Structures are given as structure tokens and as C-alpha cells.
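call fold(seq) -> C-alpha cells
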Amino acid sequence: MAVRKRCRSSGCKTSPRCEHAWWLDVMHHGKRYRMPVDDFAFPRGATAPITSKQEAEKVWEPKFITEIASGKDPRKALQRESTAGKPTTVADLLAMYRQRYVDVERLKSRHTALSQLRILTVELGQLPTTALERPEAIEVFKARCAGRAIATTNRYLARLRHICNWAIGRELPAATPFHRRGLRIVTKNERRRDRRISEGEEQHLLDACKQLNELPRANAKLTWDVVHSIRARGADRRPSARPRGHLPCPAIALQRDRVRTDWDADAKLTTGDEMRDRIIGALDTGCRRGEMMKIQNKHLDWQHRWIRILKENSKTEVARVIPFERGSRLEEVLRRRAFLGADAFVFGHSKTGECVGSFRSAWETLCY
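ret:
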């Protein structure tokens, strides 16, 4: 192994203090590798000719030996890295991120991620991928989001930071603008939400549940008994013609008879009672809506008096238990549904115990 000059064999009398180039000369497994130091160094980042033997020995000779030991031939010209299959624009990178991450991972907030990707594609999609290595393009995006809430802008930036880190792990871009001296996501100015309600608001919600049982009866289920009773009360007001043929349903029967009378006061709904139980469950357990609606009777431990929240039903994928007090209103709700069986959902349908996926309509009516 040596770093030497070949000019002495050509008759140079001032070698090695002459201006001729230094050469790398290495023997490896019986094969000799020789080439000028400059020819090896320039393609690998050198910016000036190598005139010092010390630099050639300490910097470039170890790299030369390493490439030979790894099976490469450093004498061959370096091939440019192929860009086939690599994203060239930010839109291509976001599409790859969705295909390889969002669509593969079991994300509970997948719809939120897709919405953020759509906005980022519109705002940054036309830029080259290398634009994400510098903060300028992202600062322009922040300026465009000046009219949005600070928390909303921070969620977009957090998604973009995750995309940059994910791409760097796959050797797509070379750097990220989100670092200690670069872009920062400041959360202290976000508007904090107060997740607690006052006692007065709680009582108003529970009182409003009683009114759900007295809603217009367009949402109530008509039966033939109710239709006949309405006909009997309407017969005293005006005579009605007897309908001909088969009546497909009670609603059409009332429409043909054109009966205009009040609904039977005894025919009440149970929507208000169900909503009252769900509000009590939300207030006393502190569960998220999805966690609360998936609680079954078999998840209740009456010996220790707690409710088990399963890992698969939790947003954070961490199992936990929620205690409840003896004689509390929550215990009353839990005992009332016990007769439905172990597999019944506590805050589901009040008669069948089936799971109710959403009660948005009842909640909006309650708040209105």
C-alpha cells in the first residue's frame, strides 16, 4: 500500500517535490489497483487538487481501500444514481406517503390524514421534492394559512414534519427544515378548549332530554291501533269515506282519510331516556363517544365496581378501568341494562341492547 508519484521512472529529478500528481497504489487479493488521487477524489467531493501526500494518505487512501474491500472497483467512473421510482414533485411524495403509510397502517384518524394530504397537495404539490429540504416553501405555506386557526395550521405542519421524517428514512430527500434552528411548531398560542361543563349546563341537558319524548310525532312509528283510535276521534268532527282496496301502510291510510287530529299522548318515544343515560355515562365516566358506545355488560366488574375499557376500543390503544360509586346515578343506569344479557351494549338500544353507531340527530335536536 502506498501513495507515491510515478514521475521518477520517467526521469523526473525533483520527485517527490515536483508538481506531478500523486497516485494510489494498492495490492488486494493478488490484484493491483492504481489510479491518480485526483481522479479518485474529485468524484467523491474534493474541490481542489490533492497536492499534499499527508492528505492523500489520511483522507483518500482509506476510502480507496474501503471501496476495494467492499468489492467495488474505484477505477471505474461513478454512475449517477438512478431517479427511477423516486418522487420528483411534492405531489408525488404525498401520493407515495399515502400509498405506503396511510393506506397500510391502521390509523384511527385516517380520514383526517387524507384531508390534510389533499390540502398539502393543492398548496405544495407543484414544487420539486427538494423544496422540502429548505424552510422557504413551508414559510410561504404558513403565510397562506394566516386566516386559519393556529391549531389548524399546526396540525398541517405536524403532518408535513412527519412526511419529511418518513421520507428521509427512505432516502428520498436529504434533509428536513424542521429542526432546532429551523422551523418550529409553536403550540403555546393555540386556543385551549374547556372540556368541562358547569352544573347549570349539565342540568339543562338532562331537562332537555325529557322534551325529546314530546317531539313532533312525525318520527314516531305508526301502528294500526293508533290509526284506528285517531279515526275514531276524527269521526266526530267530519264523516270520512271508507277507503277502497288494500292499504299498504298506516301512514298512507291516514293520508287518504285526511284526518287532522292530535297524536295519541300515550304513544311516547324512548329517545329522551336513551339520551339521558348517555349524557350521564359521558359525564360520570369521561369516556370518548366511541369508547362509551362499545361498553357491554360483560365489561362491568360489580365486585370491584369498575368498567373495563378494552384496548381495541380505546383511541390510545391502552386498556384501562373506570370506577363508579355505589348508589350513584351511573350505577342506576348500569343496573337497568343488566337484564339484556352479557353481550348487550350498555348505552345501545334500550330494548334490544344492540350497538348504536351514532346518535347525532338526537344530540343536535337536544342542543337545539
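The radius of gyration is 38 Å.
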